[in-house]
Amino acid sequence: MTNDVNLTEKLKHYFGFNSFKGEQEEIIRNLLAGNDTFVLMPTGGGKSLCYQLPSLLMEGTAIVVSPLIALMKNQVDVINGMSEETGVAHYLNSSLNKAAIDQVKKDIRSGLTKLLYVAPESLTKEEYVEFLKSVKISFYAIDEAHCISEWGHDFRPEYRRIRPIIGQIGNAPVIALTATATDKVRTDIKKSLGITQAKEFKNSFNRPNLYYEVRQKTKDVDRDIVKFIRQNSGKSGIIYCLSRKKVEELAAVLQANNIKAAAYHAGFDAATRSKTQDDFLMEKIDVIVATIAFGMGIDKPDVRFVIHYDIPKSLEGYYQETGRAGRDGGEGKCIAFYSRKDLHKLEKFMEGKPVAEQDIGRQLLQETAAYAESSVCRRKMLLHYFGEDYPKDNCGNCDNCLHPKVKIDATKETVIVLRAVKALKEDFRSDYVIDFVKGRDTDDIKDHKHDLLPEFGEGEDCDIKIWNPVIRQSIIAGFLKKDVENYGVLKITKGGLDFIKNPYTFMVVKDAEFSEDDDDEVGERQTAALDPELFAMLQDLRKDTSRKLGIPPYVIFQDVSLEQMATVYPISLEELVNIPGVGVGKAHRYGKEFIALIKRHCEENDIERPEDLRIRTVPKKSMLKVKIIQSIDRKMPLDDIADAQNIDFEDLLTEIEAIVYSGTKLNIDYFLEDVMDDDHIDDIYEYFRESETDDLEVAMDELGEDYTEDEVRLVRIKFFSELAN
Ligand code: ADP
Ligand code: MG
Predict the structure, then answer these.
(1) Which of the two ends of the chain, N or C, has the fewest CB atoms closer than 10 A to its terminal CB?
(2) pTM, whole model, 2 decimals?
(3) DSSP state, residue 454
């Protein structure tokens, strides 16, 4: 393949695009010329095309190493569906059976396959290596190449073996592609793949259309998220959680609030995962709640928000995950919920890991925490982290820029910090430096005899909260550097040394205040109080209804239910069902007039209903109640049910009472007829029909000693079930 080919024509021909995005063309030409190539492009930048197009133009088969099976299938489908040549892309991974593997091999041998996607685990398999030796390889593409580095979020040890395997299969140009690119990761990738000479293509990582925000995570985080989604209803979004358990819980909460949401994590089988993914792409689902297993390579251009429910483990991961929003250049809101508690939890988890890994993990976490707590422009911080200088101070599209904090003059403090770093021979991390300037004689400092240095405690009179922001903003300003290869110790730069000599006014913004405890009052909303006026009106309505229907008032709704209604103001049947003691049955039978009354009352008095501010939580699904209902349907004797559920008979009755009181009909006649005399049943039934109250003690008194408490309760259940439900 000569390099004077008209690539734009080929692009149009195979993919239907009119022009290249960014540096795609230069990248492709470099590869066609047989050179190793290194591509750094943000998510959504169009990396795949950089190897897909050349593979179609070059002789032989291109091998694409890609970390996720789901991703492979997706990409193979895309390319097979997109280019007019059919069946030019195939994949090899552990999901294929023998017959499928043989077919793939046949296609490769016949020259049909231009692109072969392989999982790193498959690539390193002896039998595939043997087979591939006999194949003409056009080039190797290593997608998501950051997986080579431990300095990131999903290191894959097999990625480290790629170079030796290439050596065995046969040399060909290598193109490595990634969207996360600190200097450290970049060096790691090049070294490990043996492409230190590779030409590097680095696009700006700035995604101007993405909006970044960090919010304090309180115990009301679920409500905050539901509210956010309601305000953005119908839009596609992804919510990342760290644990599978949280993923499932949150998805359930969203579903309970009528949000089209689904859970996704590696614990689901492949079929379920791929269905969820398809449903999301087809917009049958609006919101995916997922672990980081979701999203790599998923190409949905109009994801409108990405929420981090938990603090991400690294900014690398965070940036890649947020990168999935707004790929089409449209709106993309990226909101992270941050709490110190989560941070401490993650740090604790790390304690079991090997020391080196712990150290990396901690540093990455510290970077994320710094990002979250800082009041500096988020975009500036992120880009700085990826080695890029964002020239403006205010990007106009992040929370810190839209609500800027007042800057304070920290010239003096900055000089103190810089002097400290120098005095400590550029060999200590930020927290040590802070202890040092504050003049804290910790054991560590005393061991090093640093408390004897003249710079020790130079900043003891300053605001103790100033040091973190000063250090971080000094790093951004280029006075200090963090040496990531070396435990993150602080080094001073030439600019920093100059600043000590000739300081000029240096303004910093103080960090946002985050509380240590996310259970504190931040989340405490007003506790609702009973509305006595409404309560009286509801009682009147109940009296009228009771007269009309000829049943006692308490059969309609009990006082506790009315009190609750007069507190939370339900105005729909759905909301009414959430009132204790009101089930679906009762709500439908009697509810209509009650909610109409409440609605009118709210409108007339301009009442802000707590329900409007509240979200529905997922009831701890009472399996017990479900089992009891099922057993009674099967006419199982109640004492057997109690045994089977391992509860006392009294407790069983209490459960059943709760069930019928909230409006579910239960027919226990089969059991009553078995254990009680007919006239006992009738007597008790009659008593309740006449009585002013359903109180058990009153009933026992009135009925006398002939009847046992269990009998009275059983008949009361029958009575309620038949009359009220
Ligand atoms: P990345 O792997 O960098 O995250 P993808 O390769 O998945 O990004 O591409 C992102 C989107 O950009 C895809 O929808 C792809 O079809 C589209 N795309 C790629 N190149 C072009 C191009 N030259 N013109 C228009 N769209 C493109
Ligand atoms: Mg990609």
Answers:
(1) N
(2) 0.64
(3) T
How far is 344 from 229, CA to CA, in rounded Å? 28
| Predicted confidence (pLDDT) per residue in 159-176, tens digit | 889 999 999 999 999 999
Q: Which residue, by CA, sits nearest to atom 27 of ligand 1?
A: 46
Residue 167 token pair: 């050596």
- Secondary structure (DSSP) of 358-378: HHHHHHHHHHHHHHHH--S-H
Q: Strand, helix or coil at 379?
A: helix
663-693 residue pLDDT tens: 778 899 999 998 899 999 999 999 998 888 8
The mean predicted confidence, pLDDT, of the chain is 88
User: Domain count of the chain?
Assistant: 5
Which residue has the least CA distance to atom 5 on ligand 1? 46
- Token reading at 5: 């080919």
Q: How many helices (H) and strands (E) does the chain have?
A: 35, 17
Separation in Å, CA 626 to CA 622, 647, 714: 7, 15, 19
Cα of 144 to ligand 2 centre, how many Å?
Answer: 7
Q: 506: how many CB neighbours lie within 10 A of its CB?
A: 19
In a domain, 378, yes or no: no
Same-domain status, 352 and 422: no
Q: Using 50, 70 and 90 to split pLDDT, how confident is the model at 717?
A: very high
Cα–Cα distance for residue pair 617/544, rounded to 1 Å: 34
Find out whether the beta carbon of 51 lies less than 6 Å from any atom of ligand 1: no
pLDDT of residue 233: 87
Structural domain contains residue 56: yes
Q: Which mutation among 18, 20, 21 tests ligand 1's pocket best, with the greatest number of atoms within 8 A of CB?
A: 21
Q: By three-state DSSP, how is residue 352 classified?
A: coil
DSSP 139: E
Q: Are residues 195 and 225 in the same domain?
A: no
d(CA 27, CA 205): 17
What confidence category does residue 522 fall into, taking pLDDT thresholds of 50, 70 and 90? very low
Q: Which residue puts its alpha carbon closest to atom 18 of ligand 1? A: 46
Residue 718: per-residue pLDDT: 93
Lowest mean pLDDT among 274-288, 580-594, 598-612, 669-683: 598-612
Do residues 163 and 229 both lie within one domain? Answer: no
Walk across the sheet containing 210-216 and list its strands: 210-216, 332-338, 303-308, 236-240, 287-290, 261-264
Range of the domain at 39: 7-202
How many whole angstroms from 522 Cα to the centroid of ligand 2? 40
> Residue type at 706?
D
pLDDT for the residue numbered 524 = 39
pLDDT cut 70: percent of the chain above it = 93
pLDDT tens, residue by residue, 59-96: 999 999 988 766 677 778 777 776 555 688 898 887 88
Would you state the structure tokens that stand for residue 490, as one six-digit string?
Answer: 């602080």
Asked whether residue 333 is domain-assigned, the answer is yes
pLDDT, residue 526, reads 46
Size of the chain, expressed as the number of residues it contains: 725
- Residue 319: is it exposed, middle or buried by C-beta count within 10 angstroms (0-12/13-18/19+)? buried
Q: Which of 19, 20, 48 to mutate to test the pocket of ligand 1 (most atoms within 8 A of CB)?
A: 48
d(CA 22, ligand 2 centre) in Å: 15
Euclidean distance between CA atoms 240 and 16, whole angstroms:
34
Kindly state whether residues 604 and 690 are assigned to the same domain.
no
If we measure between CA atoms, which residue out of 523, 574, 618 comes closest to residue 263? 618
Q: Say what the pLDDT of residue 614 is.
A: 59
pLDDT of residue 79: 76
Evaluate if residue 520 carries a pLDDT over 60. no
